[in-house]
Amino acid sequence: MKKNKDILKHEDVDSVIKKIDKESNVRIWTGTPELVVRVLKVAFSLYCILSTLFSTQGLEIRLTTFIAFVVFIGYITYPANKHHVKENYMPWYDVVIMLLGSACFLWYALSYNKLVMILTSASKMTPLYIAIAIVGMLSLMELCRRCVGIPILCVAGALLIYTFAVGTKVKRVFYTLFYSTSGVLNTPVQVCAKYIVVFIIFGAFLERTGISKFFIQMANALVGKYSGGPAKVAVISSALCGLVSGSSVGNTVTTGSVPIPMMKETGYKPEFAGAVEASASTGGQIMPPIMGAAAFLMAEYMNITYAEVAIKAILPAALYFLGIFIAVHLEAKKLGLKGIPADQLPKLGKLIKKIYLILPLVLLVYMVTSGVRTMQFSASIAIVATVIVNLFDRDNRISVSKILEALAAGASSTITVAVACSMAGIISGCITATGLASKLITAVVSISSSIPKIGAIDPSIFVALFLTMICCIILGMGVPTTANYCIMASTCAPILIAIGVPKVAAHFFVFYFGIVADITPPVALAAYAGAAIAKSNPMKTGIQATKLAIAAFIIPYVFSLNPAMLFVDTTTVQVITIVVTSVIGLFCISMALEGYFLTHVPMAVRIISAVGGLALIVPGLTTDLIGLAVLALIIATQLIAKKKVDKIA
Predict the structure, then answer these.
(1) If phi over 0 gives left and psi between -120 and 50 gives alpha, with beta otherwise, what is residue 571?
(2) Strand-pair partners of 596
């Protein structure tokens, strides 16, 4: 492929990530210190795999040992600020915080058998136990500030203040948040230690096989030659990379460093180029099977199998990416853009020969969905399969050093997810201790029920869904995917369940709107990453990304009103009907937003097209007929307008 002077080099990619993503600001270790740190990280990854597969210790012992390692590895990885990013530098106070923080959790693990006899309730808490809880939690919160960011810390801090403000006793607060399984040791960390960490390590091994590069090249070979090719490549490659990626920002920078400059060169505006990559990469977080590692948490919260979660996520995710694909196609046609010259594209035949690279992923999906093995065992087998498969790749054959590198990278990635899950546990604990969830439910139900009916139409559920959507977007700003969903599941999902939305639909609704916070201004981290690569206005890029991701703002309402889209209480005919009408509806809405189909679409027609598209997406025979009638009218007017344009030309 022809070189583009605007395509980011590896060091430029790292620079962009460090500006946007807190997780990427790490200490610099060289020589012997680097070797020691790498050995510790490799040992941590191996411990996580062996622990989740074979450990018979009690839950609290395993979790507190896990968090003790997380705190220790976390502080030797992440500095207090960017000014501390110096070669082999770690200030004395970081060492103190690291040792004290990890010691608090390790003490818990070693003293658990004694503690379980003494701490039968919050009233048994002594000043020493409270002090240990405070130090342990503060060390976690400071590590969160360093590697995850301020937003989730602000949510946790605000809820802690609220917990004390409503009169909750100090002993009860720290007993709940530190010593019980309702706080730091809550469901998010339990799932992280049991499932997520092994899948993170699996993802690190996949990256070493060059699967991301393979996905990008495959997308180029499939659609690069068509009108607006680079944008379509960005959509498809982001969807494919989303199969294994756990970060909207990371996906944006990884898959966008090449397509974004090429989009600009093709003729797309910088804001549009950055927005395409950001919206598509954010969609990677809703793409099964991994779904930013949230799929495992969703299974736990909804009390269904992981395989069921992955299957239910397929159709909404496909519609999301289809919506973006249609939009970039119409934009390309409107601007008269061409594709990438054939001589600059990779040959599909050569890529097919490397299709074996996806075999570990296929094996993992098969084992998990068939239930032949546990999720953690399946992921471990997939790791071994990745190593074996990569031995056949002459261009990028795996070695012992790459295996160790993957284990170390898996440990580093685990830190941020584990810390975010710990903060989500604190948030959940505060909500439980104060009964805040029931208060939010009461408030939303009260507001929505006060809206009068319009004939036979009851708008109260739409109001409740809208208010919940706003809560999700605000709470999800700047928060990683896994922690994002944990917060939504604790605070917002119960609201929807209380008003009659099916449990599965409620959890998918809050998950979707928590995720789109990554492209929704003012805190649109994925959009800002895309803007940094495209050298465009960040706010305009965020607005454009929100516009492109319009499907993510519509589809959740659809499956909340009719969960057939999630394969809940449905038939094959209903699913096919929903797919067909939703695709046509997305086309109508994209046409309205882009203002183009066969030729320019007048504003009045665009409004009618948007209404027709929404009618097609909303389940129901009457709305479908209205939508199809609108579509027929628009096609007729466009054919007439196109003939007039052709005559003038």
Answers:
(1) beta
(2) 600
Q: 559: part of which helix (H) or strand (E)?
A: helix 550-561
- Mapped to the 3 state alphabet, what secondary structure does 364-383 carry? HHHHHHHCCCCHHHHHHHHH
- Top-ranked range on mean pLDDT: pick from 148-157, 176-185, 543-552: 176-185
538: number of Cβ within 10 Å: 20
Cβ of 324: how many Cβ atoms within 10 Å?
29
Instruction: Please identify which residue in the block is written with the tokens 């203002």.
Output: 595
For 160, 244, 289, the CA distances from 293, given in Å and listed in that order, are 26, 9, 9
Residue type, 50: L
- Residue 22 has what pLDDT? 55
For the chain, the residue count is 649
The 8-class DSSP code of residue 4 comes to -
What pTM did the predictor assign?
A: 0.83
Helix (H, G, I), strand (E, B) or coil at 450: coil
CA dihedral 166, 168, 173, 177 (to 10 degrees): -50
pLDDT tens readout for residues 346-361? 888 888 888 888 888 8
Q: What is the pLDDT of residue 1?
A: 45
pLDDT interval class at 2 (50, 70, 90): very low
Token code pair at residue 619: 């389940």
User: Rounded CA gap, 505 and 507, in Å?
Assistant: 6
What's the CA angle centered on 9, arms 5 and 12, to 5 degrees?
Answer: 110
Q: What is the largest CA-CA distance in the chain?
A: 89
What single-letter amino acid sits at 241? C
